[in-house]
Specification:
Two copies of one chain form a homodimer. The first copy, chain A, is mostly helical and about 130 residues long. Chain A folds into two domains: about 80 residues, Winged helix-like DNA-binding domain superfamily/Winged helix DNA-binding domain (Arc Repressor Mutant, subunit A, Orthogonal Bundle); about 50 residues, Diphtheria Toxin Repressor, domain 2. Helices cover about 70% and strands about 5% of the residues of chain A. Chain A is built from six helices and two strands; from the N terminus they run αααββααα. The first copy, chain A, has a two-stranded antiparallel sheet with strand order 1-2. In chain A, α4 crosses α6. The first copy, chain A, is globular, with a radius of gyration of 16 Å. The first copy, chain A, starts with a helix and ends with a helix. The relative contact order of chain A is 0.12. Chains A and B meet through α1, α5 and α6 of A and α1, α5 and α6 of B. The first copy, chain A, binds a DNA duplex (30 and 30 nucleotides) through α1, α2 and α3.
Chain lengths: ~130, ~130
DNA sequence: TGGTTTATATAGCCTTGGCTATATATTCGG
DNA sequence: CCGAATATATAGCCAAGGCTATATAAACCA
Protein backbone atom coordinates (compact mmCIF):
# COMPACT_ATOMS: atom_id res chain seq x y z
CA UNK A 1 0.00 0.00 0.00
CA UNK A 2 2.22 2.84 -1.22
CA UNK A 3 1.12 6.10 0.25
CA UNK A 4 -0.17 8.62 -2.25
CA UNK A 5 1.65 11.88 -1.53
CA UNK A 6 -1.23 13.96 -2.79
CA UNK A 7 -3.64 12.16 -0.52
CA UNK A 8 -1.30 12.87 2.38
CA UNK A 9 -1.23 16.57 1.54
CA UNK A 10 -5.00 16.66 1.23
CA UNK A 11 -5.36 14.94 4.56
CA UNK A 12 -2.88 17.29 6.21
CA UNK A 13 -4.85 20.15 4.93
CA UNK A 14 -8.04 19.00 6.49
CA UNK A 15 -6.52 19.52 9.92
CA UNK A 16 -4.62 22.71 9.14
CA UNK A 17 -7.24 25.14 10.25
CA UNK A 18 -7.97 23.19 13.40
CA UNK A 19 -4.27 23.11 14.16
CA UNK A 20 -3.95 26.84 13.62
CA UNK A 21 -6.81 27.56 15.96
CA UNK A 22 -5.68 25.38 18.82
CA UNK A 23 -2.10 26.54 18.47
CA UNK A 24 -3.25 30.13 18.60
CA UNK A 25 -5.57 29.59 21.56
CA UNK A 26 -2.71 27.89 23.32
CA UNK A 27 -0.30 30.73 22.69
CA UNK A 28 -2.77 33.47 23.51
CA UNK A 29 -3.72 31.66 26.67
CA UNK A 30 -0.23 32.18 28.02
CA UNK A 31 -0.47 35.97 27.74
CA UNK A 32 -4.06 36.65 28.66
CA UNK A 33 -6.39 35.64 31.45
CA UNK A 34 -9.02 34.52 28.94
CA UNK A 35 -9.07 33.90 25.23
CA UNK A 36 -12.14 35.25 23.51
CA UNK A 37 -13.56 35.10 20.01
CA UNK A 38 -12.43 38.65 19.36
CA UNK A 39 -8.81 37.72 20.06
CA UNK A 40 -8.93 35.02 17.44
CA UNK A 41 -10.66 37.32 14.97
CA UNK A 42 -7.85 39.79 15.34
CA UNK A 43 -5.00 37.32 15.26
CA UNK A 44 -6.31 35.26 12.37
CA UNK A 45 -7.48 38.16 10.25
CA UNK A 46 -10.81 36.58 9.37
CA UNK A 47 -14.39 37.73 9.89
CA UNK A 48 -15.99 37.13 13.25
CA UNK A 49 -18.70 34.71 12.05
CA UNK A 50 -15.96 32.58 10.56
CA UNK A 51 -14.36 32.20 13.97
CA UNK A 52 -17.68 31.46 15.65
CA UNK A 53 -18.49 28.77 13.14
CA UNK A 54 -15.05 27.23 13.28
CA UNK A 55 -15.14 27.12 17.07
CA UNK A 56 -18.36 25.14 16.80
CA UNK A 57 -16.61 22.61 14.62
CA UNK A 58 -13.67 22.42 16.99
CA UNK A 59 -16.05 21.91 19.88
CA UNK A 60 -17.86 19.20 17.96
CA UNK A 61 -14.50 17.56 17.33
CA UNK A 62 -13.56 17.69 20.98
CA UNK A 63 -10.70 20.14 20.76
CA UNK A 64 -12.15 23.13 22.58
CA UNK A 65 -14.91 24.06 24.98
CA UNK A 66 -16.65 27.34 24.57
CA UNK A 67 -18.15 28.59 27.81
CA UNK A 68 -21.07 30.96 28.36
CA UNK A 69 -19.30 34.29 28.20
CA UNK A 70 -17.17 33.00 25.32
CA UNK A 71 -14.26 31.96 27.40
CA UNK A 72 -12.54 29.54 25.09
CA UNK A 73 -10.72 26.61 26.60
CA UNK A 74 -8.75 23.80 25.07
CA UNK A 75 -9.79 20.30 26.01
CA UNK A 76 -7.09 17.84 27.02
CA UNK A 77 -6.94 16.65 23.41
CA UNK A 78 -6.82 20.21 22.14
CA UNK A 79 -4.06 21.19 24.52
CA UNK A 80 -2.03 18.15 23.62
CA UNK A 81 -2.38 18.85 19.91
CA UNK A 82 -1.55 22.50 20.49
CA UNK A 83 1.60 21.82 22.42
CA UNK A 84 2.79 19.37 19.78
CA UNK A 85 2.29 21.88 17.04
CA UNK A 86 3.72 24.69 19.04
CA UNK A 87 6.84 22.65 19.64
CA UNK A 88 7.06 21.78 15.99
CA UNK A 89 6.62 25.41 15.09
CA UNK A 90 9.47 26.55 17.31
CA UNK A 91 11.67 23.80 15.95
CA UNK A 92 10.99 24.72 12.33
CA UNK A 93 11.70 28.36 12.98
CA UNK A 94 15.05 27.41 14.54
CA UNK A 95 15.78 25.10 11.67
CA UNK A 96 15.09 27.72 9.03
CA UNK A 97 17.13 30.27 10.92
CA UNK A 98 19.96 27.77 11.18
CA UNK A 99 20.18 27.61 7.41
CA UNK A 100 20.11 31.36 7.02
CA UNK A 101 16.46 32.36 6.78
CA UNK A 102 15.74 35.64 8.59
CA UNK A 103 13.63 35.25 11.72
CA UNK A 104 10.59 37.11 10.38
CA UNK A 105 10.45 35.06 7.24
CA UNK A 106 11.10 31.88 9.17
CA UNK A 107 8.10 32.64 11.37
CA UNK A 108 5.85 33.23 8.39
CA UNK A 109 6.94 30.15 6.48
CA UNK A 110 6.87 27.92 9.54
CA UNK A 111 3.19 28.66 9.92
CA UNK A 112 2.52 26.91 6.63
CA UNK A 113 5.25 24.29 6.71
CA UNK A 114 4.53 22.96 10.19
CA UNK A 115 1.38 21.23 9.01
CA UNK A 116 3.28 19.06 6.56
CA UNK A 117 6.23 17.80 8.55
CA UNK A 118 6.09 14.11 9.39
CA UNK A 119 7.39 12.65 12.63
CA UNK A 120 10.39 11.25 10.85
CA UNK A 121 11.30 14.60 9.38
CA UNK A 122 10.70 16.34 12.66
CA UNK A 123 13.14 14.02 14.39
CA UNK A 124 15.75 14.58 11.69
CA UNK A 125 15.34 18.32 11.98
CA UNK A 126 15.61 18.16 15.76
CA UNK A 127 18.87 16.24 15.50
CA UNK A 128 20.19 18.72 12.98
CA UNK A 129 19.27 21.74 15.09
CA UNK A 130 20.77 20.17 18.22
CA UNK A 131 23.97 19.45 16.36
CA UNK A 132 24.32 23.08 15.47
CA UNK A 133 23.91 24.66 18.85
CA UNK B 1 1.37 46.55 7.18
CA UNK B 2 2.62 43.47 9.00
CA UNK B 3 1.76 40.35 7.11
CA UNK B 4 -0.64 38.05 8.89
CA UNK B 5 0.94 34.60 8.83
CA UNK B 6 -2.41 32.85 8.91
CA UNK B 7 -3.61 34.88 5.94
CA UNK B 8 -0.46 33.83 4.09
CA UNK B 9 -1.09 30.19 4.85
CA UNK B 10 -4.71 30.48 3.75
CA UNK B 11 -3.64 32.16 0.55
CA UNK B 12 -0.99 29.53 -0.11
CA UNK B 13 -3.57 26.91 0.32
CA UNK B 14 -5.87 28.35 -2.27
CA UNK B 15 -3.25 27.63 -4.91
CA UNK B 16 -2.11 24.26 -3.56
CA UNK B 17 -4.38 22.11 -5.61
CA UNK B 18 -3.70 24.09 -8.76
CA UNK B 19 0.01 23.74 -8.12
CA UNK B 20 -0.29 20.02 -7.59
CA UNK B 21 -2.15 19.58 -10.84
CA UNK B 22 0.19 21.59 -13.02
CA UNK B 23 3.24 20.04 -11.40
CA UNK B 24 1.85 16.61 -12.05
CA UNK B 25 0.85 17.36 -15.63
CA UNK B 26 4.32 18.73 -16.17
CA UNK B 27 6.01 15.65 -14.78
CA UNK B 28 3.75 13.17 -16.53
CA UNK B 29 4.23 15.07 -19.76
CA UNK B 30 7.90 14.15 -19.75
CA UNK B 31 7.18 10.42 -19.69
CA UNK B 32 4.14 10.11 -21.90
CA UNK B 33 3.11 11.33 -25.32
CA UNK B 34 -0.11 12.76 -23.93
CA UNK B 35 -1.46 13.40 -20.49
CA UNK B 36 -5.08 12.41 -20.05
CA UNK B 37 -7.65 12.74 -17.31
CA UNK B 38 -7.23 9.11 -16.38
CA UNK B 39 -3.54 9.63 -15.68
CA UNK B 40 -4.33 12.37 -13.20
CA UNK B 41 -7.06 10.31 -11.61
CA UNK B 42 -4.60 7.54 -10.99
CA UNK B 43 -1.74 9.70 -9.78
CA UNK B 44 -3.81 11.92 -7.52
CA UNK B 45 -5.96 9.21 -6.08
CA UNK B 46 -9.22 11.12 -6.46
CA UNK B 47 -12.44 10.33 -8.30
CA UNK B 48 -12.61 11.05 -12.00
CA UNK B 49 -15.29 13.76 -11.81
CA UNK B 50 -13.11 15.63 -9.34
CA UNK B 51 -10.32 15.79 -11.91
CA UNK B 52 -12.69 16.86 -14.68
CA UNK B 53 -14.10 19.64 -12.57
CA UNK B 54 -10.71 20.83 -11.37
CA UNK B 55 -9.38 20.90 -14.92
CA UNK B 56 -12.25 23.21 -15.81
CA UNK B 57 -11.19 25.57 -13.06
CA UNK B 58 -7.58 25.43 -14.18
CA UNK B 59 -8.64 26.15 -17.72
CA UNK B 60 -10.75 29.05 -16.53
CA UNK B 61 -7.71 30.34 -14.64
CA UNK B 62 -5.50 30.07 -17.69
CA UNK B 63 -3.20 27.32 -16.50
CA UNK B 64 -4.17 24.47 -18.82
CA UNK B 65 -5.92 23.84 -22.09
CA UNK B 66 -8.03 20.76 -22.46
CA UNK B 67 -8.34 19.65 -26.06
CA UNK B 68 -11.09 17.59 -27.71
CA UNK B 69 -9.85 14.12 -27.02
CA UNK B 70 -8.84 15.18 -23.51
CA UNK B 71 -5.27 15.91 -24.32
CA UNK B 72 -4.27 18.14 -21.46
CA UNK B 73 -1.73 20.83 -22.13
CA UNK B 74 -0.19 23.42 -19.90
CA UNK B 75 -0.45 27.01 -21.04
CA UNK B 76 2.67 29.15 -20.92
CA UNK B 77 1.61 30.37 -17.49
CA UNK B 78 0.89 26.81 -16.37
CA UNK B 79 4.20 25.52 -17.61
CA UNK B 80 6.06 28.33 -15.94
CA UNK B 81 4.32 27.71 -12.64
CA UNK B 82 4.91 23.98 -12.98
CA UNK B 83 8.60 24.28 -13.60
CA UNK B 84 9.00 26.63 -10.64
CA UNK B 85 7.24 24.23 -8.34
CA UNK B 86 9.02 21.26 -9.76
CA UNK B 87 12.35 22.94 -9.12
CA UNK B 88 11.30 23.83 -5.61
CA UNK B 89 10.17 20.28 -5.02
CA UNK B 90 13.49 18.82 -6.08
CA UNK B 91 15.32 21.34 -3.94
CA UNK B 92 13.28 20.57 -0.84
CA UNK B 93 13.79 16.86 -1.27
CA UNK B 94 17.54 17.40 -1.47
CA UNK B 95 17.41 19.68 1.51
CA UNK B 96 15.54 17.22 3.67
CA UNK B 97 17.83 14.42 2.59
CA UNK B 98 20.81 16.60 3.45
CA UNK B 99 19.64 16.80 7.04
CA UNK B 100 19.03 13.09 7.28
CA UNK B 101 15.48 12.49 6.15
CA UNK B 102 15.12 9.25 4.14
CA UNK B 103 14.36 9.81 0.47
CA UNK B 104 10.87 8.33 0.55
CA UNK B 105 9.78 10.45 3.49
CA UNK B 106 11.45 13.50 1.98
CA UNK B 107 9.41 13.02 -1.18
CA UNK B 108 6.17 12.74 0.75
CA UNK B 109 6.79 15.71 2.99
CA UNK B 110 8.10 17.89 0.17
CA UNK B 111 4.76 17.54 -1.55
CA UNK B 112 3.12 19.42 1.27
CA UNK B 113 5.96 21.71 2.27
CA UNK B 114 6.69 23.04 -1.20
CA UNK B 115 3.55 25.12 -1.23
CA UNK B 116 4.63 27.12 1.79
CA UNK B 117 8.23 28.02 1.05
CA UNK B 118 8.81 31.68 0.30
CA UNK B 119 11.37 32.94 -2.21
CA UNK B 120 13.63 34.05 0.59
CA UNK B 121 13.56 30.65 2.22
CA UNK B 122 14.02 28.91 -1.10
CA UNK B 123 17.18 30.92 -1.75
CA UNK B 124 18.53 30.14 1.70
CA UNK B 125 17.84 26.45 1.20
CA UNK B 126 19.50 26.52 -2.21
CA UNK B 127 22.63 28.07 -0.74
CA UNK B 128 22.66 25.53 2.03
CA UNK B 129 22.27 22.59 -0.32
CA UNK B 130 24.98 23.92 -2.65
CA UNK B 131 27.32 24.35 0.29
CA UNK B 132 26.94 20.68 1.15
CA UNK B 133 27.61 19.10 -2.18
C1' DT C 1 -30.39 53.66 34.71
C1' DG C 2 -30.30 54.22 30.01
C1' DG C 3 -27.93 54.75 25.85
C1' DT C 4 -23.89 53.69 23.28
C1' DT C 5 -20.47 50.80 22.12
C1' DT C 6 -18.64 46.40 21.69
C1' DA C 7 -19.07 41.34 21.37
C1' DT C 8 -21.32 37.47 19.78
C1' DA C 9 -25.00 34.99 17.14
C1' DT C 10 -27.63 34.03 13.23
C1' DA C 11 -29.06 33.87 8.46
C1' DG C 12 -27.78 33.32 4.10
C1' DC C 13 -24.59 33.29 0.44
C1' DC C 14 -20.23 31.69 -2.21
C1' DT C 15 -16.19 28.73 -3.90
C1' DT C 16 -13.38 24.85 -3.53
C1' DG C 17 -12.70 20.30 -3.68
C1' DG C 18 -14.37 16.08 -2.49
C1' DC C 19 -17.95 12.17 -3.49
C1' DT C 20 -21.56 8.67 -6.05
C1' DA C 21 -24.51 7.35 -9.71
C1' DT C 22 -25.33 7.42 -14.23
C1' DA C 23 -25.17 8.83 -19.16
C1' DT C 24 -22.59 9.30 -23.16
C1' DA C 25 -18.72 8.83 -26.12
C1' DT C 26 -14.55 6.37 -27.69
C1' DT C 27 -11.77 2.68 -28.52
C1' DC C 28 -10.62 -1.96 -29.31
C1' DG C 29 -11.12 -6.81 -30.16
C1' DG C 30 -13.29 -10.31 -32.68
C1' DC D 1 -18.79 -3.29 -38.07
C1' DC D 2 -20.57 -4.22 -33.72
C1' DG D 3 -20.51 -5.08 -28.94
C1' DA D 4 -17.85 -4.78 -24.77
C1' DA D 5 -14.82 -2.24 -22.23
C1' DT D 6 -12.87 1.97 -21.09
C1' DA D 7 -12.87 7.05 -20.77
C1' DT D 8 -15.12 11.19 -20.06
C1' DA D 9 -19.22 14.12 -18.90
C1' DT D 10 -23.03 15.41 -16.26
C1' DA D 11 -26.09 15.81 -12.37
C1' DG D 12 -26.48 16.27 -7.82
C1' DC D 13 -24.88 15.92 -3.19
C1' DC D 14 -21.74 17.25 0.92
C1' DA D 15 -18.43 19.68 4.28
C1' DA D 16 -15.14 23.20 5.08
C1' DG D 17 -14.06 27.67 5.35
C1' DG D 18 -14.64 31.99 3.69
C1' DC D 19 -17.84 36.32 3.34
C1' DT D 20 -21.71 40.28 4.37
C1' DA D 21 -25.67 41.99 6.67
C1' DT D 22 -28.14 42.15 10.56
C1' DA D 23 -29.99 40.88 15.20
C1' DT D 24 -29.18 40.33 19.88
C1' DA D 25 -26.67 40.45 24.16
C1' DA D 26 -23.29 42.41 27.32
C1' DA D 27 -20.48 45.94 29.14
C1' DC D 28 -19.43 50.47 30.12
C1' DC D 29 -19.94 55.20 31.06
C1' DA D 30 -22.25 59.48 31.86
Amino acid sequence: MRENPYARTREDHRSEVAEDYVELIYRLGRDRAEVRTADLVEALGVAQPTVTKTLERLQRDGLVNVHPRRRIELTAAGASLASDISERHVLIVKFLQAVGVPKEVAELDAEGIEHHVSETTQRAIARFVRGRQ
